[in-house]
Amino acid sequence: MKKIIVLLVVISLLGLGCTTQDTTDQDEQVPVNGENNQSDEDIQPDEDLNGEDNVSEFDETELEEYTSKTHNIFINSFYISPKVREINRTDTVVWRNQKKEPGIFTLKSEDGLWEDQRISYGRTFKYTFNETGNYSFYIPPYSGMNVTITVK
């Protein structure tokens, strides 16, 4: 009987790990910089290899009073979620590799916002959008692992 209970608990925990988080609540933020018991070596720096911040340019005179938000995009074995995201200027998007076993995904910007970004297991890549428009991203060679972000 104990074995059956333990088995049910393990299956339940595995099932929780396979569900995706609903990211439609924009007020909720998932920890980004190692607050998930990640070691320092699991944290990808907020700067690219050239030492520049991953932030697009913008004109401050056009901004209204707005508090920037962080939006999460989760990458797993054969899917990416959410596939479509609408955000505001000055918001930051965080791509997080949540693949269960170690692996590396390469995130490509179809619009040339950055050079290809390799995101290792448990790591993230952040980008702050300061220009309005529609932007497309994908992870080759997987079909269906693409994201469209609309910046208002």
| Strand proportion | 25-35%
Structural category: mainly beta
Low-confidence residue ranges: 18-51
| Average pLDDT over all residues | 74
The description of the largest β-sheet is: 5 strands, mixed
Largest sheet, spatial ordering of strands = 3-9-8-5-6
The gross shape turns out to be: globular
Describe the structure.
With 152 residues, this protein is mainly beta. Helices cover 11% and strands 30% of the residues. It has one helix and nine strands. The protein has one helix at residues 2-18; strands at residues 70-75, 80-81, 84-87, 92-97, 104-109, 117-120, 124-128, 133-138, 146-151. The strands form two sheets. The protein has a five-stranded mixed β-sheet, with no helix packed on it. A four-stranded mixed β-sheet has the order 2-1-4-7, with no helix packed on it. Strand 1 (70-75) and strand 2 (80-81) form a beta hairpin. The longest helix is centred in the first third of the chain and has 17 residues, at 2-18. The radius of gyration is 17 Å and the shape is globular. Mean pLDDT is 74; it is low at 18-51.
Write the layout of secondary structure elements.
Layout: H1 2-18, E1 70-75, E2 80-81, E3 84-87, E4 92-97, E5 104-109, E6 117-120, E7 124-128, E8 133-138, E9 146-151
Parallel strand pairs: 1-4, 3-9
Antiparallel strand pairs: 1-2, 4-7, 5-6, 5-8, 8-9
In short:
11% of the residues lie in helices and 30% in strands. The chain is mainly β and 152 residues long.
What attributes does this structure have?
single chain; 152 residues; mainly beta; 1 helix
